[in-house]
């Protein structure tokens, strides 16, 4: 029988979690589902957990955040155990790799460089260090290393930031706004004259420029859209509540009535 003392220790911390995952993946005594998983099958859960962390932060639900960070940490330990099972690396290697990276990228804290610099200067220095790291990995192209798996809006912003570093950028947001007007016109023409594939392409161009505007205005497009989603949800739920007071459901209403109630919900939020 394996020694489960650490696994059942409520104060076992990270070593306890690592031991639990090792047991779950044990080919003889582990969980069949956990044993069957690989990097690809777990990746969607990793992305989902990251979003749930962001959602807890958005709601300022700190108790929820503790649990969601635990779920995200589990994903790191899970991937690390899969890698260990395949003889690739283990969780200690993961911790050491990020520790080495953080020390190397903060010479003003862990080295001899002066800390007497602005956050903006530190950001520029950070980008210089990352560029050197990419060069060492033979990633010499300006856009090399921007992860394909990122949400599309975030990847658009990262691609544009990389291009801006080498001077491929509009000087200010007014030029971006002009480009947005141009893309809206092209989308309108595509919608009336071209194929659905062309409409999708023009719509993508518009979203890409909107991401560029977000970058120029120092707005995270993902955060902005999450907030817009939350606002829509909140106001539409208020419409449903107001309709319920009238003994109705949305399907029994019409656009004119719901639009009036939407305005009421907006007005209530401003009070």
How would you sum up this structure, described in words?
With 271 residues, the protein is mainly α. The protein has helices at residues 13-24, 32-36, 39-58, 62-85, 91-104, 107-110, 119-136, 152-165, 173-193, 196-216, 221-245, 255-270. The protein is globular, with a radius of gyration of 25 Å. The termini are far apart.
How many helices? The count is 12
Q: Determine the mean pLDDT.
A: 91
Low-confidence stretches: none
- The percentage helix is over 70%
Query: For this structure, what is the CATH homologous superfamily of the domain at 13-104?
Result: MazG-like
Distance between the termini: 64 Å
Estimated structural class: mainly alpha
Largest pleated sheet: none
List strands and helices in order, with pairings.
Layout lengths: L12 H12 L7 H5 L2 H20 L3 H24 L5 H14 L2 H4 L8 H18 L15 H14 L7 H21 L2 H21 L4 H25 L9 H16 L1
Helix pairs in contact: 1-4, 3-4, 8-10, 9-10, 11-12
The gist of it:
Belongs to the nucleoside triphosphate pyrophosphohydrolase family. This protein is mainly α and about 270 residues long.
Throw out a few tags for this protein.
12 helices; 72% helix; mainly alpha; Helix Hairpins; 271 residues; single chain; globular
């Amino acid at each position: 029988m394996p020694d489960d003392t650490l696994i059942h220790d409520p104060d076992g911390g990270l070593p306890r979690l690592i031991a639990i995952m090792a047991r779950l993946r044990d080919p003889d005594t582990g969980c069949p589902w956990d044993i069957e998983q690989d990097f690809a099958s777990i990746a969607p859960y990793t992305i989902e957990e990251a979003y749930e962390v962001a959602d807890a932060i958005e709601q300022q639900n700190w108790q929820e955040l503790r649990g969601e960070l635990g779920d995200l940490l589990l994903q790191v330990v899970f991937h690390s155990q899969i890698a260990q099972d395949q003889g690739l690396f283990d969780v200690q290697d993961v911790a050491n790799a990020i520790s080495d990276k953080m020390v190397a990228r903060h010479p003003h804290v862990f080295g001899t460089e002066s800390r007497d610099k602005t956050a903006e200067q530190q950001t520029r220095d950070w980008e210089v260090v990352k560029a050197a790291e990419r060069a060492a990995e033979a990633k010499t192209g300006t856009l090399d290393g921007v992860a394909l798996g990122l949400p599309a809006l975030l990847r658009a912003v990262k691609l544009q930031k990389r291009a801006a570093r080498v001077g491929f950028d509009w000087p200010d947001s007014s030029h971006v706004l002009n480009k947005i007007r141009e893309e809206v016109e092209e989308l309108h023409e595509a919608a009336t004259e071209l194929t659905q594939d062309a409409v999708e392409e023009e719509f993508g161009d518009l979203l890409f420029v909107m991401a560029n505007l977000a970058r120029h205005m120092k707005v995270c497009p993902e955060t902005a859209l999450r907030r817009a989603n939350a606002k829509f949800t909140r106001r539409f739920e208020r419409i449903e509540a107001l309709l319920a007071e009238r003994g109705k459901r949305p399907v029994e209403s019409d656009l004119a009535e719901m639009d009036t109630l939407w305005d009421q919900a907006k007005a209530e939020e401003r009070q």
